[in-house]
Amino acid sequence: MFDCHCYLTVWNRWRDVTDKHAGEKFFRFHIPVKCKYKTEIKRGTAGSAMGRSAVNAGTVIENFRLAFIPDNEWYVPPNEWVSMAEDGRRGFYTLRVADIMAVGHSDVDITGVAPFRESDVMGMLAPDIFMISAVSDNTKGMKGKHFKVAGV
């Protein structure tokens, strides 16, 4: 487990469902808190529930990231975040599956236009960037209130 005395950058994915021609937008937010993250190796057999890297027969090794983020005043639950006005969303963040997160402070915006498409930014910031695959809200306890985020 590593201490992260810098930032995590999250890009929250947004799509206006009222406009069928609107593309996805990403709202970037820097989480300026001490957090913890680690990289682990998940082992399994191809064909099992390992996810997208289980392609060939044999043992599959997949790296994944865990981030532990203390509860803070900038976090808004997903259902509240999506109902905010666009300007309001810029001052807060949420944590949802399929959003993008990077270790460190990144000023790169995902615009949907080359060279700042989602895949371009993922390649540019690799290996310190990942797509969120699970979020656990651990803020209901008495101590150590935090969010646990996992991703590949």
Task: Explain this structure.
The chain contains 3 helices and 8 strands. The chain is mainly beta. The chain has one domain (2-151). The chain has an 8-stranded antiparallel β-sheet with strand order 1-4-5-8-7-6-2-3, with no helix packed on it.
Topology:
Elements: E1 2-4, E2 8-15, E3 24-31, E4 35-45, E5 59-70, H1 78-83, H2 86-89, E6 100-103, H3 118-125, E7 129-138, E8 146-151
State the gist of this model.
The protein has 152 residues and is mainly beta. The protein has helices at residues 78-83, 86-89, 118-125, and strands spanning 2-4, 8-15, 24-31, 35-45, 59-70, 100-103, 129-138, 146-151. The radius of gyration is 16 Å and the shape is globular.
Tell how many strands the DSSP assignment holds.
8
Low-confidence stretches: 50-56
| Biggest sheet record | 8 strands, antiparallel
Shape: globular
- Total domain modules: 1
Total of DSSP H or I helical runs spanning 4+ residues: 3
**Biggest sheet, strands in spatial order?**
1-4-5-8-7-6-2-3
Descriptive terms for the model:
single chain; 152 residues; mainly beta; eight-stranded antiparallel beta sheet; 41% strand; globular
